[in-house]
Amino acid sequence: MPIHNRFADLHSEITGWRRHLHTIPELNFDLPKTAAFVEQRLREIGVDALETGVAQTGMVAVIKGKSDTSGRVIGLRADMDALPIHEIADVDYKSTHAGAMHACGHDGHTAMLLGAAKYLVETRNFDGTAVLFFQPAEEGGGGGKVMVDEGVMERYNVDEVYGLHNMPGGAAGSFAIRKGGLMAATDLVEIKITGKGGHGAMPHSAIDPNITAAHILLALQSITSRNVDPLQSAVLSICMMSNDSAAFNVIPQTVNLCGTVRTLSPEVRDLVEARLIKLVSSTADAFECAVEINYERGYPVTVNHDAQTDFAVDVACAIAGVGNVDPDTAPMMAGEDFSYMLEARPGAYIFLGNGENGAMVHHPEYVFNDDIIPAGCSWLAGMVEARMPAA
Questions:
Q1: Cβ pair 341, 162 in contact under 8 A
Q2: What is the pLDDT of residues 28-78, one digit of tens each?
Q3: Would you say 166 and 369 are in contact if contact means Cβ atoms under 8 Å apart?
């Protein structure tokens, strides 16, 4: 297809952008070098308008089609931030920022959206307006929510919004998507259990919060196994335990538990939170301990809209062929703050295969596969052309 051919021509240039971004990974909202590079490329490309400083270091680029009889606006999003990981991958363009690495491929997502921008400016083969969101702080900072809260959807009159993420394990250049819940809500739970400290040889004179914590930890697993419908999905993992004693013969005063809750529907999310609070409180009470519970809701479920998912599948099939597109892939329990954009506007989020070998995202040996760049660029630009065909 013509889009794919043009991106083959641009492949080397876009790869160079991606590898440069890889050398300067930055975290959360603090992306001065990344944002400056992206802004410079967009100005060189010649987008029609560019707003910087959105969600601190994000930006919004506007590209107008050859005509605008439809009055439609299609949004595309890429995330720009990295992870606090020390890179050990064997590549020539390693991170130059100690303790930071593009271990999730956001450098690739950003480069692909820049490539799509260049193509769309060159051709303008659509009837309407493309709005490109370059977003900070996907990795836990909720930059997508900040952009939505700052009014980008209303300010740019966005009708639909689309995004993609590379996925190791999938064949390079293949696509996978599903209607409804694609990625999970991500909630944080912190539990502080306070008993009465004492000598390890005289437990009868203490109230042992370790025992209480152990019962709570085991009891919490009954929520996913006995309260949640077996045909629904939920994960409850206590991942950290600590207490205020460093001695082998001291019963501590307090124990802290910290973990994550992942769910794929609002109803199950509500159920797990309610049961967790009740179960922790009643168990602590039974063992005569005081308890403090901090339950923080994070990213909501990433929910793909039905019609927009069908459009995304059609464009993916035109690029990769029907046999290389999975329209009903299994959901993932990882989270994604593109969910806030999908709550604000109809749209869809799709996975792009990064290759069947190699490390998973969030691993210090992860490597983005530059061979998938033409497919990703083609899908991004293809969504604009498909949803706003030239008049």
A1: no
A2: 999 999 999 999 999 999 999 999 999 999 999 999 999 999 999 999 999
A3: yes
